[in-house]
Specification:
It is a single chain. The chain is of the alpha+beta class. The chain folds into 2 domains: 171 residues, no CATH class; 146 residues, Nucleotidyltransferase, domain 5, CATH 3.30.420. Helices cover 42% and strands 17% of the residues. Strands 2-6-7-1-5-4-3 form a 7-stranded antiparallel β-sheet. A 5-stranded mixed β-sheet has the order 10-9-8-11-12. A two-stranded antiparallel sheet has the order 13-14. Helix 1 runs parallel beside helix 4, helix 5 runs antiparallel to helix 6 and helix 6 packs across helix 8. Bound molecules: zinc ion.
């Protein structure tokens, strides 16, 4: 199934639909949700019947209705779309390909549940989606013949919805094919995720199959901190070399221009530069491989808009290194189909990762101490969790609706469940977190277990 799609990158752009377009897109999401649930019910029903037959368990009690011979697969369900449109005329207003994609997504989730993958792992049982849980829909073609989505001159035009401004804060790469356009509804508005295709790399891990995710915050004290609370220190020899470099540079300045000594000194400086660069690259690759091996989705701060959010300080060096690291991380991730999701950095440090309350802090303050919900966390860890939450939301996943991810979340990051929950109900206060994490009854509430 994966061999036909070779995705490289997904770029997400903010779109500005009109009020009427927003209402229409919300209605699409709701209709697609109902249809998803209907199609899932059809599949589960078929499974129940065939299983009973195989067990010869209930030939009497089972209703003797017609037992469909073939499973209600994608083709069968897509074939019934016509009938759906007759019975429910609202569905005529949804672009046909979008409805097919909706069914395809279900098919993929179903396949992953029914058939184990190469390593013997199976996905969770596909869940019925509750109201508001389906927040994205996909146009399978962009800017090509018969495409339902077109991007031209700062405008995104969606079939049956119309044109709206799209903010291309990062250019669409040349040399890649625009593959699909997924419209995602997020807390702060609507976004278009454009996937760019390259034949030479494997497909991204499907969204429904993401089992582990991490948020990564870059800092001065540590090179990075993950939302799991792990840190990667700045290389020691990097700091040493930086000092040596500064010293040699000062010396170089004092020398007479053009002299033999000055030339030698210049060479020395250049070599230190080169060594620093090489070591940093090696270090970046090492860290990138480590992250990509451990996680299916990696949330990071978007460098392109970071300048606005960062405080003064001499962060330019840090930002440059972070940019290099991101490039390497993306390159490494792409080869394994791992998603690197860039999120807006605004407020990641200040916002409380549990309740969303703003807790501004200067650079010296190393601890996040929320006066509202009494959460106490390391400053960078708090930021990393915020980044993770944003990344998960950016791809249109909700923690309670993403199967495998949930078990991971409950295992590793009790605070995350809380923070997502808190945001989705619009904030609220939680009891002080103890070292043992949230109480087990909260994790095991029906809402959450239903998804595993
Ligand atoms: Zn708080």
């Amino acid at each position: 199934m994966l061999k036909h799609t070779h995705m490289l990158l997904t770029h997400q752009y903010r779109i500005q639909p009109s009020i009427a377009q927003q209402a229409q897109m919300n209605w699409w999401c709701e209709l697609l949700r109902r249809h998803h649930n209907y199609a899932l019910g059809q599949r589960l029903d078929w499974l129940r019947r065939t299983r009973c037959l195989a067990d010869r368990c209930s030939l009497i009690s089972e209703p003797m209705g017609e037992i469909p011979g073939a499973s209600p697969n994608y083709y069968l369900q897509a074939g019934e779309l016509k009938q759906t449109k007759v019975l429910f005329p609202d569905y005529r207003n949804i672009y046909h390909d979008v409805q097919q994609q909706n069914l395809k997504r279900l098919e993929k989730a179903w396949e992953r549940w029914v058939k184990p993958d190469n390593s013997g792992r199976r996905g969770g049982r596909p869940r019925f989606k509750k109201k508001g849980e389906l927040r994205s829909f996909t146009f399978p073609r962009v800017n090509s013949e018969k495409a339902g989505a077109n991007i031209r001159g700062g405008l995104l035009t969606l079939s049956k919805i119309g044109s709206m401004p799209i903010i291309l804060h990062r250019p669409l790469l040349d040399g890649f094919t625009l593959k699909t356009c997924t419209i995602v509804k997020q807390a702060d508005g609507w976004y278009a995720s454009i996937s760019l295709e390259d034949q030479t790399v494997p497909a991204l891990i499907p969204l429904d199959n993401i089992k582990s995710a991490v948020g990564v915050d870059v800092g001065l004290k540590e090179f990075l901190t993950t939302s799991d609370g792990e840190t990667e220190p700045v290389q020691q020899n990097f700091r040493r070399d930086q000092k040596r470099l500064a010293r040699h540079q000062r010396r170089s300045c004092r020398m007479q221009k053009g002299s033999n000594n000055a030339q030698k000194q210049k060479n020395r400086v250049a070599r230190i530069h080169q060594r620093i660069k090489r070591q940093r690259k090696e270090f970046h690759y090492k860290v990138a491989h480590k992250l990509v091996k451990a996680y299916d989705l990696i949330g990071v701060e978007d460098l392109n808009i970071k300048g606005l959010a960062r405080t003064k300080l001499a962060k330019s060096i840090l930002d440059a290194a972070w940019g290099e690291f991101l490039t390497i991380l993306e390159a490494v991730a792409v080869k394994r189909g791992v998603r690197v999701v860039k999120v807006k950095p605004h407020g990641t440090t200040a916002d409380c990762s549990t309740c969303g309350w703003k807790v501004p802090k200067t650079l010296e303050i190393r601890t996040h101490d929320c006066p509202k919900c009494l959460t106490v966390l390391d400053r960078d860890l708090n930021a990393a969790i915020n980044i993770l939450v944003r990344a998960i939301q950016a791809v249109g996943l909700t923690v309670s609706a993403c199967g495998g991810l949930l078990s991971w979340v409950t295992r590793h990051a009790d605070h995350l469940v809380k923070s997502v929950e808190a945001r989705s109900v619009g904030g609220g206060s939680f009891p002080r977190r103890t070292s043992s994490g949230m109480s087990s009854c909260e994790i095991g509430s029906p809402d959450y277990t239903a998804c595993g």
